[in-house]
Amino acid sequence: MLLSEFDYELPEELIAQRPSDKRENSRMMVLNRDEHKILNKHFYDIVDLLDENHVLILNDTKVIPARLYGYKDTGAKIEVFLLKERENKNWEVLIKPSKRVRVGTVIKISGELSCEVIMPLPDDGKWLVQMIYEGDIFEILHRVGNIPLPPYIERKMSNEDLKKLDFERYQTVYAKEEGSVAAPTAGLHFTQEILKKLEDKGVQVGYVTLNVGIGTFRPVKCDNILDHHMDSEVFEIRQETADLINRAKADGKKLVAVGTTTVRTLESAYKMFGKIQACKGASELFIYPPYKFGVVDKLITNFHLPKSTLLMLVSALAGKDFIFEAYAEAINEKYRFYSYGDCMFIN
Fold first, then answer.
1. Nearest C-alpha neighbor of 218 from the set 83, 24, 78, 60
2. Which of the chain's termini has less CB crowding within 10 Å, N or C?
3. CATH classification for the domain delimited by 67-145, as one of 2.160.10.10, 2.40.10.240, 2.60.40.1840, 1.10.3080.10
4. Does the structure show a pLDDT above 60 at 89?
C-alpha cells in the first residue's frame, strides 16, 4: 500500500491556530457507516448520539510542559524538548541546535532547573541528558516549561495571553497522568458538563493511559507504508477499566474510543491477550486498512495530517474511500483541521 494513497491538499487557512471559543462548540462531522451518510453537527450534539448501549473510553494522559528554553555558559540559546523520562533523573530529549552541544555541556533553564548532556542516542537525533534540580520535576516544569504545541501551530512565546490559553486548552479536562508531549486531541472537545450529561443518559465512562510521544508529529517517510515502524509509546489499562469494557462487551454494548491513542491502547492489549485485561505495556501497533478491530466499534477523532499514520488508522475503521469523501466535504465546508480543529464521529 503506497503512502501517496493517503495524501490530500489542505488549504493552509484551515489549519486551526487557536481552539474554538468553547470546547464543546467545535463542529463535528458524523459519519454513519451503515447508511454511508455524512452529517454536519457540533460537538455538544454527542449527547444525543450516545446512550446506555455505549461505553466511552478516554485517554487520561496529561501533557507536560516539555519545551524548555535555556542557555549555555557562553550565552548561546538552546531549546531542549523532553521526550521520555528514564531512571536517575535522566531524560531522552531533542536539542536545537544540536551542533552547539557536546557531552558534558550544561544548559541552564532557570534558577531551579539545568541539564547536562550525557550522550547522543542512536535513535533519530535524540540525546540523553541528566536533569539537575531538587523537588518534583513536574511541578518545576509547570513553572518554567512551555506547552509543546505541534509545529503547524505558530506561536510567539512572548505573547503571555496565548501562552496561558495553550496551558489551559491544550489539555483535556480529565487529564491526570503526567507524561505526554502531545495532547490526545479528540478529548479536547469534552467538558465536565458533557461527561456528566452522558453519564446521566446511562453511558458508562472509563479511562486508559497512553503517553503520547514525538512520533505523533513524525511523518511517514517510506513510499510503501508497510515499511514504516511506529515509535513505541507506554500505555496502561487499570483493572476497573478492563472490567468495565469486558462487562459492556458481554452485554452487547458498543465501545466508543475517544482518540486514536485510545484505539491503539485497546487494540494493543487485545492483540496481546485476546481480550482486555489490566496491564502495562508499550504499543508499536500500526493500524492501516484492512485492519480487523477486536474491541473498538466507534471513534471520536480530529481531522489528521496527510500521509499520517492517524489518517491510515481512521481509514481502517471507516473505509479509506469514505474517509477521503468526508475530508473533501470538510474542506468544502471550511472545517478547522488538526490539533485545535474540529472533530469527526465515526458512527
1. 83
2. N
3. 2.40.10.240
4. yes
CA angle in degrees (0–180, nearest 5) for 173-177-180: 90
Amino acid identity, position 116: E
Distance of alpha carbon 289 from alpha carbon 5, whole angstroms: 11
Q: Report residue 71: phi and psi, to 5°.
A: -135, 145
Using H for helix, E for strand and C for coil, what is the string for 49-87?
A: HCCCCEEEEEECEEECCCEEEEECCCCCEEEEEEEEECC
User: Which DSSP category does 201 fall into?
Assistant: T
Calpha distance 229→209 (Å, rounded): 22
Average pLDDT score, the chain: 95
- Indicate the CATH number of 3-63+172-346 among 3.20.20.140, 3.40.1780.10, 3.90.1150.200, 3.40.50.300: 3.40.1780.10
Q: What are phi and psi of 127, to 5 degrees?
A: -125, 155
Give the largest CA-CA distance in the chain: 65
* Nearest CA among 147, 81, 141 for reference residue 113: 141
Torsion 227-230-232-234 (CA) sign: negative
Instruction: Extract the C-alpha cell encoding 342.
Output: 474540529
Q: What is the pTM (predicted TM-score) of this model?
A: 0.94
